[in-house]
Amino acid sequence: MPSVRYILFWMLAIFCVSTVARAQGLMIRNFNVKDGLANATVYAAVQDKDGFIWFSTPTGVSKFDGKRFRNYAKKDGLTDNDVVKLTADSKGRVWFFTLNGKPSFYFNNVIHNEENDTTLAFNSHGHYLQYAFEGASGNPIWFLNSNNRSLLYNGKKITYDKQGLSGSDVRFLLARDSIFHPLQSAFRLETLKDPNNPDQKIISVPPFPVDDPEFRSRINKHPVVILKNSLYSFRFKDAISFFNGPEWGIREDISDICLDNDNLWVGTQRALYLIKNFFKGERKVTRLLENHYITSLLKDRDGNIWITTFGDGVYYIPYKNFYFSYLDNTNGLYSHSIFSICKDKKTDLLLIGQNAGILNTMDAQGTIRQFTLDTTTGRNSLLSILPYKENNVLIATDNALFQFNTLTQRPSLLRSVKMLKDVDVSPSGKIRIAAKNEVISLDNNYVIPDLDMVVSSIASVDDSTYFVGTNNGLYYCSDNNRQLVRPGNNTHLKQSIKDLKWINGFLWIGTSDQGIYVMHHDSVVRHLSTANGLASDICQQLYYDGVGKLYVATNKGVSVIDVTNQQIVRNITSNDGLMSDDIRGVYSDDDMLYIATSNGLCYFKGNNLPVDSVPPVIYLSNIRYGDSTFMPAKDFIHLYQRKASFEAEFGTIVFDLPDQVEYQYNFSGDSTTGWVTTMSNIIPFPDLQPGTYKLMVRARKYKSDWSQPLNLNISILPRWYQQWWARGILLLLGLLVILFILRYIVRRIKQSEKRKTEYNRRIAELEAKALTNQMNPHFIFNSLNSVQHLILEKEEKQALNFLADFATLMRQMLNNSRKSYISLEEEIAFLTRYLELEKIRFAHSFSYKFILQESLKDYTIYIPPMIIQPIVENAIKHGLAPKNSSGCLEIRLEMVDDLLYCSVDDDGIGWDKSNTLKSTRLVKHESTALSVIKERLQIIKSFNGSVGKLEIIDKFKSGFGNKEGTLVEILIPIVKML
């Protein structure tokens, strides 16, 4: 019993540390309804002449360009939504086989059916199409329906074939593939025996190996028939089996197959099988897509593999993934996160370090074993694996340093180190360790402890000296002084350092965010960053392959540097096929490159990295102008719409990295210059004016050249009012309108000048009249009588004074009459002198006074001359002079807005009584004087816009109580100055 327990214990232990051999993983992408696919159940896939991939589903068909699905259903022209099969002919037509049996196809962006294409009118009698064949030149096309009858389509009509094919089944057509070229890759049959061909031999055991060149050529040249889970090469003379599923472990029936160069893909109702290098004689089967019902397989022109499924959408395997091998937690590893990688070249054992202290080993046969190196709690990742002694490697974890024997595959603990960061081995094998805040020399048995910095990396120069990288820069140390000192005074070496490598006398320094520095003799001689093409400035590890290549692991891929010329050779990223851009480690073994990422291990032949340099196919998707969308065409002609935006939407057929496609467009017509680069596939032109334009668009995918330009000729036709003749008429009308307006303006100017001249003339006449009125003969006559009276009375002195004042007044009147405006002070002085003479003449029978508003003193005010004097004269002569008693005259001056208010108030006999007493001559004289004043006010208004006013009020009749006299109010336009 104890021996039994012992045996069971070891069997359990072996089970825990090893797994069966796993094949390389494949990165497979799934497209489903959420991505735009019409349905998760896909019956078939086909690639058309332009390069689009088409998928048939129960709810229509999907056309795929690598980025977008364009779905078509019955509303778009399909005869039925349930499309069970489809095929593409050599003329570019995609034929749809629907359950209702009505033929239809897609060509030139239109689905053709019996409603829009009379050549497809046909009564199917409810039998649907199953297979399609075409002639050598693409015409005619034969269809075989579910009633085992053949149909012929010659481009003009579709009819039941009457040339001896009616009643023949698919085997008849397959046996004559030189005449009837099959449009399907493989045909599933219930039996191979053709009653119409009794001489055909059925050979179920392959007489030749599949790697025989002639047999392989036959398989590729002639139709392949699927019989349950076996494959046959079908000819008229014989049908020879070349694959028997049970011999390969495939028990279920085969649904479809794909011949991929040397590889064979087999789809069944349970899984997808890949037999790599089948036609080279290899016998290794890879089972993929477990528990998936495979409905069809397609290899496109680029070598990508498309797998359609029943209920699980479409799977896509890029061609370049066949150049890579992948390992993660789905095919043998403990987890998908990998921290370190190394290979023992003697035993060919691959060592893969992961988290939780797990070491994975994979031998040359692909057997993977797992070891737990440390059970310490907390984070315990295998940070570094590096060669040590013969058949041994060093493995550094977060908490310890181990030695691992690659022959016995047994680990042994060398030293526990808390928060270990890096390990390096000197040329003679001395081990140095960088921990969180200390440096340990294991063979010299010393520690530099309690450093006030975080130690991140270490690199040996020789057996006694080494460099130390920290969070605040680079330091140098030796076994003799055991002190960290800065090498030189270079400020560049004070960056946070992630990893160090000493290579042929140069120190390569990987920083946390400044890229790579190269130091020689304590001086920085080279700096490489993203500006020089480095994948990222955040370096995570440096690896030197020993033959001239330095690999920089960053958070955005791997950069390969030639250490001799210190130049970046290339970058390797997820766009090239890596599982992730977050790179933790790199290892090179001859021509094989291993890259550890946060999403698994990727290994491939480093010098055989696939690059798809073929430019993409670019196509015009649609054209939008204004609110309308138009089908794609080489020429676009449309009538101009005001403020309408023109948009051209383009697409490319790119299945690998469609998001990396760049576009360039050119609207200048010059294919050498004027290109504008954009990532958008929509090119807008707002408010495109009438004219003829040529739009050129080209595209390029990741690492490819630019495609040939796709040309679009655009003609925006002008409206009638934009035609040359319409513009000529409008221009002529515009000129006539301008001439009319100019003529009208000139006429107005002439009329204005004429009115101005007339106004000046009338003003001069009125001023002359006013002067004449001022120079009243009665005033002069009476004044002279007064002088005569004074002389007779022997009052010669008073007479002389009167004459002097009279002369001064006359001179002042003459001077004022020549001016348009005089100051208010001059007017008051003139009126005062005039009133004084009138007092003498009328024997001091009245008194007068001026009342001025205080604000008038703040300005210099100018008024037209000889406006107030006639009013004052009338007040004296006709109001105060006839009065029997002494009278009073009051002259009030005030500002009202921008006008001067003047009131002449007398307590004479009044306006009405004066008019009664006056003679006819006096009335006429008075009326003339007042009308002249009114005319002058009106003329002044026409020049400066100010409105004057004259009003005569009889106080007795106008409600001033018992007061007699006349009040004259006048508003005089003025010019005001500070």
Would you identify the CATH H-level superfamily of one domain?
Histidine kinase-like ATPase, C-terminal domain
**Could you say which overall geometry the principal axes of the C-alpha atoms support?**
elongated
**How are the strands ordered across the major sheet?**
13-12-11-10-14
Task: Tell me the major beta sheet.
Answer: 5 strands, antiparallel
The secondary structure category is alpha+beta
Give the number of helices.
Answer: 10
The unreliable regions are 1-23, 920-926
Assigned CATH class of one domain:
Alpha Beta
Q: Please tell me the CATH architecture of one domain by its name.
A: 2-Layer Sandwich
DSSP, total strands? 70
| Residues in helices, as a percent range | 10-25%
| Whole-number mean pLDDT | 86
Beta-strand residue fraction: 35-45%
Radius of gyration: 56 Å
Q: How many angstroms separate the termini?
A: 131 Å
CATH topology of one domain: Heat Shock Protein 90
Protein name: Two component regulator with propeller domain
GO molecular function, one term: phosphorelay sensor kinase activity
InterPro entries: Bact_2-comp_sensor_kinase, HATPase_C_sf, Ig-like_fold, Quinoprotein_ADH-like_sf, Reg_prop, Sig_transdc_His_kin_internal, WD40/YVTN_repeat-like_dom_sf, Y_Y_Y
Keywords: Membrane, Transmembrane, Transmembrane helix
